Amino acid sequence: MFVYLQQLWETNSLSPHGICLLWRPELIWTHVSADALIGIAYYSIPIALAFFVSRRHDIQFGWVFWAFALFILACGTTHFFAIYTLWVPDYGTEALIKIITAALSIITAAAVWVLLPKALAIPSTEELRKLNEELIQQIAERNAALAALQAEKAEHLKTEEMLRQSQKMEAVGQLTGGIAHDFNNLLTVVVGHLERLEREFRDNPKIYRSVKGAIDGATRGAALTQKLLAFGRRQPLTPMRLNANLLIDSMSDLLRRAVGERVSVNINLDTVLWPVEVDSNQLENALLNLAVNARDALPDGGTITIRSANVTDPIGEKGAKHTGQFAMITVKDDGTGMTPDVMARAFEPFFTTKNVGEGTGLGLSQVYGFVKQSNGHIEIESNRGANGTMIRIYLPRARTASGPIRAVAGIGFATPVGQAT
Ligand SMILES: Nc1ncnc2c1ncn2[C@@H]1O[C@H](COP(=O)(O)OP(=O)(O)OP(=O)(O)O)[C@@H](O)[C@H]1O
Ligand SMILES: [Mg+2]
User: Fold this and answer.
1) To test ligand 1's pocket by mutation, which of 345, 364, 368, 391 has the most ligand atoms within 8 angstroms of CB?
2) What CATH number matches the domain at 236-396, 1.10.600.10, 3.30.1300.10, 3.30.565.10, 3.40.50.720?
3) What is the 3-state secondary structure (H, E, C) of the chain?
4) Buried-most residue among 100, 217, 279, 404 (CB within 10 A)?
């Protein structure tokens, strides 16, 4: 073996490759330049491959690139050595380089064949693009489902909140109505007896004055209980089939007087409003209450607009659905508006933001009770400091075409005093 290797590197008996080319310069230099160019190119390719693999950590089968790099490097070396052996007959080293190149070539070739099925299994760019599109589509669908779920959740929370609010109003209404009912009956008895005393002591000025004072106090108490009864939906109502347009029209002067000169009242009525079946006095009372509230929200003057329109299955302010046909009356002002907190409590009895003595907080609660007792709906739309407030009243369309239609002649706002219920 040693002798074999010794003979392999024995160069004395050999002549350089140039001799075979008879040292003809055109052959020598053509070989030199061709081998040099091939060698340089072969050396640059592994550098590019190494750079590529080192930058792309995601690349699969990266070791194959390294095998390629070594194999091409060895090929390049054989070409550089071919230049060397033109002058130096070191064919032993050349043979060794070729052996190394052969080994690297076989390893790389074997690896390529082994890897071929795996490489074919890698999805093509087109397939990846399609998969990507599918993924994007799935993400969009999932996002849409998520958004729908969130919207449903928000809807659910809103419905729960509305239910809580209406349960609270129901409970307060029942309590208030119950107390007011008993209190009203007691006051009826008190006022009855006081009126008898008033008649009896007409000739006794001292007692007469005291009795008068007592009657005044009891009357005020009775008026208050009437308001509470209205909120508790327990006030005696006399529903009449009527056209709300005629009623609004007939009270327009009164409304203008009530709101004063600094506030203008626009009335915009649907020409063919459906008839409703409600207590006309209470409807007048409600409209007056709303107009006065609007006026109070317009300390520097402004406009109140009263409209009427027919609506079917309206969607309410908070998304609540009101099924059926309604004559809708809206009272809108361009005043200060309400904060969400005030809006949430505005219908509660005794809730007021006005100074002591300026408001009892019973106006809207009365309107609320009246509308509910008339099987209608009432809603507030308001933003503090923007666009003022709009109150919508939905009164159910009167079912039957028959029945008396109330001619709205005189307007009476007097609440029955101490009337037993
Ligand atoms: N149009 C409106 N603009 C702004 N806030 C309003 C409006 N209407 C009602 N409010 C608010 O709702 C609260 C309750 O109104 P409600 O009519 O029940 O009572 P009040 O007007 O304060 O007193 P009362 O009507 O007994 O004189 C008011 O204090 C006010 O804060
Ligand atoms: Mg009021």
Assistant:
1) 364
2) 3.30.565.10
3) CHHHHHHHCCCCCCCCHHHHCCCCHHHHHHHHHHHHHHHHHHHHHHHHHHHHHHHCCCCCCHHHHHHHHHHHHHHHHHHHHHHHHHHCCCHHHHHHHHHHHHHHHHHHHHHHHHHHHHHHHCCCHHHHHHHHHHHHHHHHHHHHHHHHHHHHHHHHHHHHHHHHHHHHHHHHHHHHHHHHHHHHHHHHHHHHHHHHHHHHCCCCHHHHHHHHHHHHHHHHHHHHHHHHHHHCCCCCCCEEEECHHHHHHHCHHHHHHHHCCCEEEEEEECCCCCCEEEEHHHHHHHHHHHHHHHHHCCCCCEEEEEEEEEEECCECCCCCECCCEEEEEEEEECCCCCCHHHHHHCCCCCCCCCCCCCCCCCHHHHHHHHHHHCCCEEEEEEECCEEEEEEEEEEEECCCCCCCECCCCCCCCCCCCCCCC
4) 279
